[in-house]
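Problem statement: downstream parser choked on a complex file, so we are re-checking the raw output for the adenosine-5'-diphosphate run. The parser issue turned out to be on our end (a line-ending mismatch), but while we're here, posting the original submission so the record is complete.
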Amino acid sequence: TPTITLSHINKVYANGTIALQDLNLEIGASQFISLVGPSGCGKSTALRIIAGLGQMSSGQLEWGQGQTPKLAYVFQEAALMPWATVRDNVRLPLTLAKMPKREAMAAVEESIARVGLQGFEKSYPRELSGGMKMRVSIARALVTKPDVLLMDEPFAALDEMTRSRLNSDLLSLWNQLRWTVIFVTHNIYESVYLSQRVVVMADRPGRVVADVIIDEPYPRN
Ligand code: ADP
Ligand code: ADP
């Protein structure tokens, strides 16, 4: 997995809002980093720029090792296709990449197993709880074997118990797979629990106010 370097990134929206002011971040390979801060501090804007979904007004974004990384994005809304089964929802990115079904199946089954949804392959989204839908959404992100996983408040709409379980399972997955993860949240506990590095942002204008490496005093699974 490549490193990501953001240099002097500014983002001003058409209405004049300064969403990001001089954002500088170097994100190491296989790092689990979170961006934390109040609503409106520019977290999503930063993530969208990293994903190539949003334009910066000025600045630079570089991927290390000359590699074009494979990115996957997980949003707060699981955004599943309601008419498709869990299996077909997870397979979607491979379907879009025109991978034949037979060839896709091993990766699909593996992804479903990784998020603990074995037995639900033929279920439809309406039959699943919010936490399970999020698991499908994560499986769909993993099925392409991404280098970098971008997560924007993925668990914010879930109850505390479900959120806790998902956090713990996400951490185990990261321990197995070691993608680079950039996790956006406004929950400081969640960021500290999950990440190796917490970048704290403030608003008006959106900027980084602290960048903290979390030591690992206990084994992380
Ligand atoms: P966060 O993810 O931390 O809540 P955002 O990146 O969504 O923050 O937003 C940063 C700032 O930019 C906020 O003030 C928000 O209202 C503003 N903003 C976001 N998107 C747009 C847009 N498309 N047009 C104008 N302003 C926007
Ligand atoms: P302690 O050693 O004090 O028991 P914990 O690791 O249990 O520490 O929790 C520290 C903080 O992290 C607590 O405020 C808790 O709410 C939060 N936390 C613990 N586990 C999770 C989780 N799975 N997801 C989100 N937050 C968590």
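For whoever reads this later: The chain has a mean pLDDT of 94.
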